[in-house]
């Protein structure tokens, strides 16, 4: 039975695409080993840098496509930051812009066939989420001192006992933020890429009669492009919400 299954062409391994492997052969990965993850992280940084550098190079009155894309991205993120955090949060716009571009470019580049998806790995998204968590916490205590703890105290609750219960819930939800922030991004990217791999495996196994899997691949690929953009937006907007809590604590 194993031989028949092996010869049927239905040996689909959707999780192999997430394996971190050395770029120059071998099976052992050390902390200093260049891997496929290293390559695609560098390409992500290069793509984000190229978009903004090429878009801001000419500064023409009649913008080029690159300039239009860069200006639209800049304006979109800047409006999001100021709408959520107010003028006080505008100084942190470069950081949020960098996060948005990094996640967006990584998500979109991972849709290239045979590419690697860094943001499908919790090791990458957890670092981004922890950086946000630590940054906003430090900002909150630096700007407000002990008054930052008002974020956890629901003064509008009718009784002290209820306020204590709500404070415990608020503290737990606060420290869960980096987990939910990172898992949401990695989980969505991993699930979408795994589904694409499964349907691609069915299409390859069925050969000339693979009409349904091919149409499914096209539909799912279009959905994944939308997910790539939406997840970058969600990651950035959650960062803005957390920053707003640090700038304006209290209920």
UniProtKB/TrEMBL annotation:
Record keywords: ATP synthesis, Cell membrane, CF(0), Hydrogen ion transport, Ion transport, Membrane, Transmembrane, Transmembrane helix, Transport
Domain of life: Bacteria
TM helices/strands, residue ranges: 37-55, 92-116, 122-142, 151-176, 196-218, 225-244
Location in the cell: Cell membrane; Membrane
Broad class of where this protein is predominantly found: membrane
Example of a GO MF term: proton-transporting ATP synthase activity, rotational mechanism
InterPro entries hit by this protein: ATP_synth_F0_asu, ATP_synth_F0_asu_AS, ATP_synth_F0_asu_bact/mt, F0_ATP_A_sf
Membrane disposition: Multi-pass membrane protein
A GO cellular component entry from the record: plasma membrane
Keyword Ion transport: yes
UniProt-listed Pfam families: ATP-synt_A (PF00119)
Described purpose of this protein according to its UniProt entry: Key component of the proton channel; it plays a direct role in the translocation of protons across the membrane.
Annotated family: Belongs to the ATPase A chain family.
Identification of the protein by name: ATP synthase subunit a
Organism: Amaricoccus macauensis
Lineage: Bacteria, Pseudomonadati, Pseudomonadota, Alphaproteobacteria, Rhodobacterales
Gene: atpB
């Amino acid at each position: 039975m194993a031989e028949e299954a092996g010869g049927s062409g239905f040996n689909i391994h959707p999780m192999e695409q997430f394996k971190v492997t050395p770029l120059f052969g071998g099976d052992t990965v050390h902390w200093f080993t260049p891997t496929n993850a290293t390559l695609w992280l560098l390409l992500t940084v290069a793509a984000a840098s190229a978009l903004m550098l090429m878009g801001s190079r000419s500064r023409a009155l009649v913008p080029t496509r690159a300039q239009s894309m860069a200006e639209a991205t800049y304006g979109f993120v800047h409006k999001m930051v100021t709408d959520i955090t107010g003028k006080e949060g505008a100084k942190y716009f470069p950081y949020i812009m960098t996060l948005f571009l990094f996640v967006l470019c990584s998500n979109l580049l991972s849709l290239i066939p045979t590419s690697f998806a860094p943001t499908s790995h919790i090791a990458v998204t957890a670092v981004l989420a922890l950086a946000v968590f630590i940054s906003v916490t430090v900002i909150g205590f630096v700007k407000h001192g002990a008054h930052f703890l008002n974020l956890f105290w629901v003064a509008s609750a009718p009784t002290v006992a209820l306020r204590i219960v709500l404070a415990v819930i608020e503290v737990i939800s606060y420290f869960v933020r980096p987990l939910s922030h990172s898992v949401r991004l990695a989980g969505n990217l991993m699930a979408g890429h795994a589904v694409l791999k499964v349907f691609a495996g069915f299409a390859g196994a069925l050969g000339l009669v693979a009409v349904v899997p091919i149409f499914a691949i096209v539909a799912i690929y279009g959905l994944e492009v939308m997910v790539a953009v939406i997840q970058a937006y969600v990651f950035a907007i959650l960062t803005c919400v957390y920053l707003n809590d640090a700038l304006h604590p209290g209920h």
